[in-house]
Inverse folding.
């Protein structure tokens, strides 16, 4: 009986101990299973540790650039992060991968799709867009009465109409005689101050500078002869008659800048043109070199003539500075057909100029006005107009 009791007790102990051993075995494996789970979350899910090069690309973050400067995932679809100025702009996302408004050579270097406006826009020709705030005109209005409806009294309203059409701030006029002075004062005197100087007491024909009364304050003005003795009535070199330069220094009220306006009517020779420049340079250009300088007039020389070289070397012209002015740079400034009403045709010469310094007055436009009024001319020269930003 004792043996039977002992066997029963041994069997009971085995029944109790076997489940306990199984439970203990499961508890010992738990840390390993936990470590394997952690590896799967941080790595590829295989339970093995990966190297950096084995890791897959992250495709759910399209704005993260890959190591070569391109965006991860689909190159043609991913927007640029904008911070890729060091990459080669010719590769990768040409034309469709940038999220900004890049232009020219800035592909891939913009930091934002909305670029700040610098205020320096460009026109259709790539030139910096400028807003004109200053207009100059040169107009040889012809000194005498001509037939067929072209006397000074008949032409004066036409000159007025052309001046009012362009509303210039300053006008330089050539071939002004006393009759013209009276007409100008009548037609334009309410708006413009009119300064007239004659080249000779015996032959009162000269130059006028008209400036808007409300825009300028006169500092000083005068004239001198273009000769070896510029302070006395005289002619030199190969001049056929006395020639003068009329000038005025004006304060431009809107900007506070000092304007030096000069009006010229030259002889038709290179010798005179060159020597006249030397006198103007010494008496005005050097003395008032800080002023905003304009020299306008009828030079009686073409752009390619040797006598014009010094003027073109010192000054610029709107007609040649601008790539696309209203009037072609090669247009003539004297009409064919004068004084025959209704006649039109190619102009004869380019004699009239508007000179400026681009560093002080940036050219905006250039116009040769070919208007005929009721079939009639205003003069045997066209008005020449240029606009600037000063």
């Amino acid at each position: 009986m004792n043996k039977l009791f002992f066997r029963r007790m041994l069997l009971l102990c085995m029944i109790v101990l076997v489940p306990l051993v199984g439970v203990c075995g499961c508890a010992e494996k738990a840390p390993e299973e936990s470590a394997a789970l952690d590896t799967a979350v941080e790595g590829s899910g295989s339970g093995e540790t990966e190297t950096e090069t084995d890791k897959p690309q992250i495709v759910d973050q399209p704005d993260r650039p890959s190591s070569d400067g391109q965006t991860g995932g689909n190159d043609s679809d991913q927007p640029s992060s904008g911070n890729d100025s060091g990459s080669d702009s010719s590769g990768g996302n040409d034309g469709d991968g940038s999220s900004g408004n890049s232009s020219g050579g800035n592909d891939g270097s913009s930091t934002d799709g909305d670029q700040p406006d610098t205020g320096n826009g460009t026109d259709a020709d790539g030139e910096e867009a400028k807003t004109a705030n200053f207009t100059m005109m040169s107009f040889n209005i012809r000194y005498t009465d001509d037939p067929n409806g072209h006397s000074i009294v008949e032409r004066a309203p036409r000159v007025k109409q052309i001046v009012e059409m362009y509303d210039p701030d300053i006008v330089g006029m050539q071939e002004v005689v006393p009759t013209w002075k009276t007409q100008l004062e009548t037609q334009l005197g309410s708006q413009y101050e009119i300064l007239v100087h004659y080249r000779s007491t015996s032959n009162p024909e000269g130059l006028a500078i008209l400036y808007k009364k409300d825009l300028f304050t006169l500092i000083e003005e005068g004239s001198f002869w273009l000769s070896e003795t510029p302070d006395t009535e005289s002619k030199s070199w190969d001049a056929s008659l006395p020639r003068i330069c009329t000038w005025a220094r004006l304060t431009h009220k809107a900007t506070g800048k000092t304007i030096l306006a000069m009006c010229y009517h030259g002889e038709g020779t290179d010798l005179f043109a060159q020597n006249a420049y030397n006198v103007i340079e010494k008496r005005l250009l050097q003395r008032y070199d800080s002023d905003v300088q304009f020299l306008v007039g009828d030079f009686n020389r073409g752009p390619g003539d040797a006598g014009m070289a010094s003027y073109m070397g010192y000054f610029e012209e709107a007609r040649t500075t601008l790539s696309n002015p209203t009037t072609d740079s090669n247009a003539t400034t004297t009409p064919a057909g004068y004084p025959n009403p209704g006649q039109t045709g190619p102009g004869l010469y380019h004699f009239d100029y508007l000179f400026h310094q681009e560093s002080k007055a940036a050219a905006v436009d250039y116009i040769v006005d070919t208007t005929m009024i009721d079939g009639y001319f205003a003069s045997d020269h066209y008005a020449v107009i240029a606009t600037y930003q000063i």
About this structure: The radius of gyration is 43 Å. Residues 186 and 319 are 32 Å apart (CA to CA). The helical segments are 2-42, 152-166, 178-188, 270-285, 309-314, 318-321.
